[in-house]
Amino acid sequence: MNGRVWQLQEAKSRFSELVNTAMTEGAQTVTKHGKPAVVVVSAEEYRQKLAPRKSLATVLQECPEDLTALLGHRAKQVARKVDLG
C-alpha cells in the first residue's frame, strides 16, 4: 500500500485532509476493522489509471521509420551458424 493508512473513523472526521493529502501525496488507504477497505486517489490519478494503454503493435507503428538517430548505425554482418543439436 502506498501513502498513509487512515482508520475509517479518522478518515470520516478528517475527510478534507484526506482528500488534500490524496491530491498532493498520492493514494491514501482507508481501513475498516483493521483491513484495507478503500483507496482514495486524486481524479487525475484515477483518470490516468483508466486511460487505455497502447498495444505494442501500435507503439511500434508510431515509431519513426528511421531509428538510426535513436539507435545509431549498426554494422551489417552475416549471421553466424549455431549448432542446436
Describe the SSE topology.
Layout: E1 5-7, H1 8-13, H2 15-25, E2 28-32, E3 35-40, H3 43-50, H4 56-62, H5 68-71
Parallel strand pairs: 1-2
Antiparallel strand pairs: 2-3
What would your notes on this structure say?
The structure is a single chain. The chain is of the alpha+beta class and 85 residues long. It has a domain at 1-52: YefM-like domain (YefM-like fold), CATH 3.40.1620.10. Helix content is 42%, strand content 16%. It contains five helices and three strands; from the N terminus they run βααββααα. It has helices spanning 8-13, 15-25, 43-50, 56-62, 68-71; strands at residues 5-7, 28-32, 35-40. Strands 1-2-3 form a three-stranded mixed beta sheet. The longest helix has 11 residues, at 15-25. The radius of gyration is 24 Å and the shape is elongated. The N and C termini lie far apart (49 Å). 6% of the residues are buried. The mean pLDDT is 89.
Entry keywords:
single chain, 85 residues, alpha+beta, three-stranded mixed sheet, elongated
The ordered H/E elements are EHHEEHHH
CATH superfamily of the domain at 1-52: YefM-like domain
Quickly count the helices. 5
* SSE-based structural type: alpha+beta
Identify the overall geometry. Answer: elongated
User: What percent of the residues sit in helical stretches (DSSP H or I)?
Assistant: 40-55%
Examine the coordinates and then state which fold CATH places here, giving the name of the CATH topology of the domain at 1-52. YefM-like fold
Query: How does CATH name the architecture of the domain at 1-52?
Result: 3-Layer(aba) Sandwich
End-to-end gap: 49 Å
On the 0-100 scale, what is the average pLDDT? 89
Q: Measured on Cα atoms, how large is the radius of gyration?
A: 24 Å
Strand fraction: 15-25%
Largest sheet, order of strands side by side? 1-2-3
- Main CATH class of the domain at 1-52: Alpha Beta
